[in-house]
Amino acid sequence: MHVGLRSNQEDCLFINGEIFQEEGFDSVITIQNNSGHGLYAVCDGMGGMNKGEWASKFICDHLKKDIEFRDQEIIKHLSEIQTLVENENVQKSGSTIAGVLLKDKDIKIFNSGDSRVYKITPGQIEYVSHDHSLVQHSVDDGYITTEEAFDHIHKNVIEFGIGDIFKKVWDEKRSSVFINSFTLNETDCYLICSDGVCDVLRDNEIFAILSPEPLDVIPEFIEIIKERMNDNFSFIIIGLE
């Protein structure tokens, strides 16, 4: 993770129970998980005046790495965190979240907002989460292409997430947590990232940099993002060794 051009770090990482948000943090950390179970998430806060920083950290502080491996349990857990956030009454605060829940070689992808999860295989990169954004709606409805969405003036207008600013959306059930399921193969990697990554690199650029061995080129990946960055950026790469 990197603070980018901002004065504070609004991203926060949850790596199977460990939480990272230090503003000066700019390192590659490798964590080995021998249990076959784990929860990994990237949260990207918003709200200004340190409210985004607070929101992303609050969410990570309340994530549980032992969530039951079912879609409804993931949704229930994030809904409970939404209630906890509302009880704190930090107005106009919020955060996106994107994550991977791992059980042996089965994977649940989930997201709320525009932080993303990509599946990277030897032959392709696939965007396997789904943005809750104004521009994504336009893509889904066929009004614009994904290429046009990348440069769209409103691409950072978020319609769903966790926090006070999304209370009405949760109350009215106008949107819901997106969930996807996969099996983790030895040749696959999963990239979880904040929009500080996917706002400056197109999907094919991410693939060109990270393939064929994503875990071997992380320092180069970071340097390329830093050359273009205009925001905090954070990412987690998950793979088998």
What do the pLDDT scores average to? 91
Tally of distinct domains: 1
Task: Describe the global form.
Answer: globular
Helix content: 25-40%
Summing up helix and strand content along with how strands pair, one would put the structural category as: alpha+beta
Topology record:
Layout: E1 11-15, E2 18-20, E3 37-46, H1 51-62, H2 71-88, E4 94-103, E5 106-112, E6 116-121, E7 124-127, H3 134-140, H4 146-150, H5 167-172, E8 178-183, E9 189-193, H6 195-198, H7 203-210, H8 218-228, E10 235-239
Antiparallel strand pairs: 1-2, 1-3, 3-4, 4-5, 5-8, 6-7, 6-9, 9-10
Feature tags:
alpha+beta; 4-stranded antiparallel β-sheet; 29% helix; single chain; 6-stranded antiparallel β-sheet; 8 helices; 241 residues; Phosphatase 2c, domain 1
Please explain how this structure is put together.
The chain is α+β, with helices and mostly antiparallel strands and 241 residues long. The chain has one domain (11-239): 4-Layer Sandwich (Phosphatase 2c, domain 1). Helices cover 29% and strands 25% of the residues. It has eight helices and ten strands. The chain has helices at 51-62, 71-88, 134-140, 146-150, 167-172, 195-198, 203-210, 218-228; strands at 11-15, 18-20, 37-46, 94-103, 106-112, 116-121, 124-127, 178-183, 189-193, 235-239. The strands form two sheets. Strands 2-1-3-4-5-8 form a six-stranded antiparallel beta sheet. It is globular. It starts with 10 loop residues before the first strand and ends with a strand. The mean pLDDT is 91.
